[in-house]
Amino acid sequence: MRALAQDVFRYCAPGTFAKTPRRLKQWYNIWLKISRREQHGHDCGRHAAEHGFPDTSMNTILIGAQWGDEGKGKIVDVLTAGADVIVRYQGGSNAGHTVIAEGKRRVLRLVPSGILHEGKVCLIGNGVVMNPCDLADEIEALRATGVECSGRLFIASRSHMVMLWHRALDMADEAMRSQGSKIGTTGRGIGPAYASKVSRTGLRCGDMLAPDFPDRVREGVAETNRILRSMPLGDFRLSVPGCTVRDNQLDADELVGIYETVSRKLSPFVIDSIPFLRKAQEDGRDILLEGAQGTMLDIDFGTYPFVTSSNPTAGGACVGSGIPPRAIDRVVGCIKAYTTRVGEGPFPTELFDDDGRRLAERGHEFGAVTGRPRRCGWFDGVVARYARQINGIDYWALTKLDVLDDFDEIKICTAYELDGRTIEDMPASAAELARCRPIYETMPGWKEKTSDITDMAQLPPKARAYVERLVEVAGAKLGILSIGPARESTIVMI
Ligand code: GDP
Ligand code: IMO
Ligand code: MG
């Protein structure tokens, strides 16, 4: 106890002990940090204090551990109960995060899933590529269902914009790719927007307010029209939702008008996010960083080139928000009790049989954004272990266990066979992964409904055995178990 008290004093700056609820919360966070340090044998928070960062907020990264659609929206919504500020840090409106709360189902694309909790503040971080038209629509749709974003949603001025021409280029590029080299993108302009960002020609949200913004829109349209003319599009007829396309060409006047309207709507939301997040940390606010997509779609660590164009992994959370790595306290990996993938690319445990069809049906596996059917397969322990390593996952949020309620037998992939060898690590190349055959362990199904249970003790023994084996194969600890799409169908242990 004495050691604990000493630690508390070491963690706290002098003069922070006023008896306010906020201070009490800070004390609680400090205690959590210390107990975590003891548990994990490393000093997770003190470094940040030594480097001049306030160290009383509890900062969590939530990432997708598979190929996206793991249920991140639902888990962020659940974790938001214990957070103050929720930050999306990468991706764009390619994401579709479903939250079912108070009987309403909402799909969030750009707005952090924490927005549905009154009083919580949300930020679209600098790492996001934000389509202003999509965001304006999303804010409007939320307002129509009683959720007001004004004063609670902010956009980092450093975040880049996905312009309508990026969508045009995304669709034209995908159409031109031959079978086998198609990515199966969401057509939301994500790749071209990130390409503009790294080639230093992108438009940032802060640019919406600049007087030369209309000129830059005209330049973007002119350049895109030039590229489209040079592409061998043949009979392909480009169609971009939200604007007119004639002879595969965009209209600069129309786009200037669209962006004039939309920037008027969005500019009140744009802020410099760095002082905003510093203040949040100084005030001991708990920050939740919401990942989109998933580890296997990461531009560096995923199944390149069948990936998205950002870093959904935990490292991306720091780059995409400006929160230093040492201020991160825990990483939660969201993972389904089986695997899905939408779009092209290798997927070793994919099923083409009745089991695959049943997973798709029972799990309602259709894309939240595109409505495309998701490919389904058994749980892949190689993917999970790889995700644990890349992201430094402390806890799993295991979702959709209820989808397996009806199966006689359930399989877990524990390793791959590649060219006659057994491998336990994820191969670096997509071509090698495509040649991998899963090595399975088979477990008995529990054939009982799990969606009504409220604590782990009520889990049928065979379901518990499946969860325990899955966590053993993956490593880390189970922190959350989700057994239904609604907020209530969740057992939180962290
Ligand atoms: P995200 O992109 O990771 O946020 O996931 P999506 O929202 O695209 O897809 C997850 C789907 O599974 C949504 O329809 C959720 O409502 C649903 N879902 C989330 N958790 C559970 C769960 O534990 N059980 C069931 N049956 N559905 C779930
Ligand atoms: P959430 O956040 C699942 C996939 C696309 C395609 C590839 C590249 O809801 O989990 P992009 O449009 O990003 O250039 O497409 O990535 N993809 C997703 N798959 N969930 C997502 O987001 C995805 N976002 C992109 O299907 O294969
Ligand atoms: Mg999704």
The fold-level CATH name of the largest domain is Adenylosuccinate Synthetase, Chain A, domain 3
Mean pLDDT: 92
Low-pLDDT residue intervals, each spanning 5 or more residues: 12-19, 40-47
Number of E-type strands: 22
Please name the CATH architecture of the largest domain: Alpha-Beta Complex
Nearest-angstrom radius of gyration? 23 Å
List of distinct ligands in this structure: guanosine-5'-diphosphate, 6-O-phosphoryl inosine monophosphate, magnesium ion
The CATH H-level superfamily of the largest domain is Adenylosuccinate Synthetase, subunit A, domain 3
CATH class of the largest domain: Alpha Beta
| Fraction of residues in helix | 25-40%
Question: Count the helices. How many?
Answer: 15
Strand content: 15-25%
What is the approximate shape?
Answer: globular
In total, the number of domains comes to 3
Structural class: alpha/beta
Distance between the termini: 22 Å
Largest sheet: 10 strands, mixed
Strand order of the largest sheet: 11-7-5-2-12-1-13-17-21-22
Description:
This protein has 494 residues and is α/β, with parallel strands linked by helices. The protein has 3 domains: 60-150 and 285-319, Adenylosuccinate Synthetase, subunit A, domain 1 (Adenylosuccinate Synthetase, Chain A, domain 1), CATH 3.40.440.10; 161-267, Adenylosuccinate Synthetase, subunit A, domain 2; 333-492, Adenylosuccinate Synthetase, subunit A, domain 3 (Adenylosuccinate Synthetase, Chain A, domain 3), CATH 3.90.170.10. It is 34% helix and 18% strand. It contains 15 helices and 22 strands. It has helices at 2-11, 21-40, 46-50, 72-80, 132-144, 164-176, 190-198, 213-230, 252-266, 273-282, 314-319, 354-362, 381-391, 430-435, 461-474; strands spanning 60-64, 85-88, 97-101, 104-108, 121-124, 129-130, 153-156, 160-161, 245-246, 249-250, 270-271, 287-290, 330-336, 339-341, 375-377, 379-380, 395-399, 409-418, 421-423, 437-444, 477-482, 490-492. The strands form 6 sheets. Strands 11-7-5-2-12-1-13-17-21-22 form a 10-stranded mixed sheet, sandwiched between helices. A hairpin with a 2-residue loop joins strand 18 (409-418) and strand 19. Helix 1 packs across helix 2. The longest helix has 20 residues, at 21-40. It is globular and about 65 Å long. The chain starts with a helix and ends with a strand. It binds guanosine-5'-diphosphate (GDP), 6-O-phosphoryl inosine monophosphate and magnesium ion (MG). Magnesium ion binds next to loops. Guanosine-5'-diphosphate is lined by residues 64, 68-74, 96-98, 100, 364, 368, 399-400, 402-403, 482-485.
